[in-house]
Structures are given as C-alpha cells and as structure tokens.
Amino acid sequence: MENLSLEQIDRQLGEWLREERSVRAPDRLVEDVFNRTTRSRQVRRWPFPVRPASASERSQTWRFATALAGVAAVALVAAVGVVLIQLGSGPGVVGTPAPIVSPGPSVMPSPTASRVAPTPTDAPTPQSTTLGQTSARSLFLGTDAAPIAVTEAFGSIWVANIHANQVRRYDPATMAELARIPAPSAAWFAVTDDAIWITHQTDVGLSRIDPATNKVVANVGDVPPCAEPVLAFDSLWQSACDAGVILRIDPTTNEIVDRIPSQGHLWLTFAGDRILAIGSAGLAILDPETGTFSPLPNEDVVDAESLSFDGDTVWARTPERLVRIDPASGQTISTLDYPGIREVAFANGSAWLTSSEGVVEVNLETNEERRTIPLTGGGDIPFVTGDTLWATDFNNSLLWRIDL
Questions:
Q1: Containing H/E element for 85?
Q2: Close Cβ partners of 18 (under 8 Å, ≥ 6 residues apart)
Q3: 41, 185, 186, 248: least CB-packed within 10 angstroms?
Q4: Element (H, E) at 287
Q5: Nearest to residue 117, comparing CAs of 44, 177, 42, 187?
Q6: Tens place of pLDDT for every residue, the chain, 404 residues?
Q7: What is the DSSP code (8-state) at residue 163?
Q8: Is the separation of the CB atoms in 138 and 150 below 8 Å?
Q9: What single-letter DSSP state applies at residue 294?
Q10: CA–CA gap between residue 323 and residue 275 (Å, rounded)
Q11: Ramachandran region of residue 298, left (φ > 0), alpha (ψ -120 to 50) or beta?
C-alpha cells in the first residue's frame, strides 16, 4: 500500500468496504466506524499566526500528509475488520459469520437534543456570593447558552437562551430547574392570561407555550421578529424589522389579524392607553384601529434604540443617555446621562439599569442614583419581582438572583 497514491488508496478502500458491508456488516456499521475514527471536536481556534509556506515546506508537508493518510487508511481497515470479527464470533465460535438480521424499529436519542437540552437533573447548582453589600446567587446555564430575556409568570422564572434554542423554567426560590422547552433562537417574552410567548430572534415568528404542560402549542408568524412583543388592546404586537412590518396577533386564536407597514417605526411599548413606537422615523403613536402612525417630534430621541414604560413616563434608551418622555405629548421631561445602558426595568419605586458594570438603581421620583450592584461581566436584561432582582449575563451564560 505504500506505493499507492491517495486516490488509489481511497478507491480500493471504498470498494473493499462496500463488498464487506454487503455480506457481513449490519446496516450503517461501516459509516459509523468511519465517523468514529475521523470525527473530532474543535476545542479552540488556531492560536498562532499563519504565514505562507515555502515550496520545500509544501513538498515536505505533502509527503507527510500522504504517509499519514496511508497509515490512517490501514488503521481504518483494521478497525472495521476487528468490529466485523467481533460481530461474527462469540464464545465457542471461531470465524463463523453472524447471520444477517433485519434491524427492527428502535428509539434513538437525538444527538442535538441531548447536547442542547439535557435533563433538568444535569443542571448546575446555584452558587452563593456577595455583590458589594448585596447577597446573590448565580446559576451557570451551560457553555454558550447565551440567555437574553428573563421574566416571571405562572409562579416560575423563565429564561430565554438564544444559542441553546430553548426556554428554561425555574423555581424562583431555589433556582431549581423545572423544565426545558425547545424554541429556536429564543429571545423575548410576552405573558398572557394562559400562555407565555417567546420570539425566535434569528428564525421566524413566535411560539406559544402552555405553562400547564411546558409544551409549545402554536407557532405563529412567517417573518423574523425583532425586539420584545407588546400586549395591548387584546392583541400581541410584534415588530419584524427585516420585513418592515408590525404583526398584530390574536393570542386566543393564534392568528395574525393584521400586518402593518412599520414605516421606520420598529420598537414598541404600551404606555397606559396607547402604543408608542420609535425608530428611524422618530417617535410616534400607533393607532390600533387604523394601523397608522401619528408623529410625536422629539429631537432628543432620534437615535433611541428602545422604549420602556414605568407606569407614568416613557424611557427612551439612546447610546449616550436615557430620556424620560411624557407619553401624551412626546416631550422630554428629563434626561439621565448613563451611556451604554443595555436595558431598563421598573419596580419598587426604582428604575433598574443594566450595563457593563452591573445594575444601577435610580429613584423614579428624583432621578438620583441609589446604588450600583457590581456584576462581573455586567448585566443584560433585568426583571424585578417582589424583593428579588433577576438579571441575565449573555456573554457568561449566567442567571443572577439578587436579594434587594
């Protein structure tokens, strides 16, 4: 075999494997052995700079690769042969081929499911720590789970893990994992009376999850969603940035009842009795009856990236600051110089701002900073329920439970 070229080795090996499989090997055995002997996991990226190889180096490299390929081919033949001998022989039997038995139906675990959705018993346990003067616990969600939104509903905490393609449900007191629900590129939640909805950030549409069964009962929408869905006027309103529309969904029938051209209005919030929208076209009110926008000119929010409502005023988040707005007139009430804020939540008379430094608590009445809770790696999406602050850490795949 040393005198054969790589092409000849491949051809002869392929012919031999096909002949042997047809008479001695069970279905898919050869492919399985080949996969096991050739597949390897990429642990890290190549850590060294790459330079062009000289002609002599390329020649040496090719000769080495040819020899290595020959050795690998021999090893593969030997591996298949050993497996075939073991299958054809048993105690007291020498060299007797095993009879060919047609494989019956079997249930095999899905490699993808086992990788991204192990059973809750496999989940890590919470780690207690102190953040400044504040007691907290963190829960590692798995390598590259990449959590985005967190919310409370139906007596549980729900976390959307975009890279793990699943929603996870937790006990709010113990952080014990209760369920994992498959959801492609899970990102943002909306909660209705009898369901929890999750957007598919890099896919299309939303999923409706039944909290009684922890099952997806409906998938709605055929365009990629963006931002958080809004519940208002007995409907779900979902922006679809790439498609340039806003979907109006009936959450009881799971049907799309309207597609509204967004006209540069992408991010929505429900401010008491009206839907406000922001985007490249500026601030506007969306009329739910006509699907039209009424502009609310405000130069302070031309570069706003999201809107939030604290119960009285609307907060527009820009790259450099937060702008508090009168939802009726659209005029600025006050500004807060907090560059790089990632998201805002409201509870207990405070605004909770996440950033690369951690979580900042701001007094809603005075706009004065009350405290900063340091988080290594920062916080992404906050949610406050009762005396507990929850926050996700996208880069480090962490869920934080912080005692207030």
A1: helix 55-88
A2: none
A3: 41
A4: none
A5: 177
A6: 445 544 455 445 444 444 443 333 333 333 333 333 222 222 222 222 223 333 333 344 334 334 434 434 444 434 434 333 343 333 333 333 333 332 233 222 333 333 334 445 566 899 999 999 999 999 999 999 999 999 999 999 999 999 999 999 999 999 999 999 999 999 999 999 999 999 999 999 999 999 999 999 999 999 999 999 999 999 999 999 999 999 999 999 999 999 999 999 989 999 999 999 999 999 999 999 999 999 999 999 999 999 999 999 999 999 999 999 999 999 999 999 999 999 999 999 999 999 998 999 999 999 999 999 999 888 999 999 999 999 999 999 999 999 99
A7: T
A8: no
A9: E
A10: 18
A11: beta
Question: Whose CA is closest to 140, among 186, 177, 188, 189?
Answer: 177
Nearest to 404, CA basis, from 324, 342, 350, 337 = 350
- H/E segment holding residue 250: strand 245-250
Q: 121-403 has which CATH code?
A: 2.130.10.10
Length of the chain: 404
- At 359, list the tokens: 């979580």
**Residue showing tokens 């996208």:** 394
* Alpha helix ranges (H) inside 219-330: none
Tell me which H or E stretch contains 115: helix 111-116
Separation of alpha carbons 74 and 118, rounded Å: 37
List phi, psi (to 5°) of 336.
Answer: -125, 125
Tokens of 307: 């809107």
3-class SS string, 34-47: HHHHHCCCCCCCCC
Residue spans of the domains in the chain: they are: 1-39+59-96, 121-403
Distances (CA, A) of 196 to 191, 220, 222: 5, 13, 19
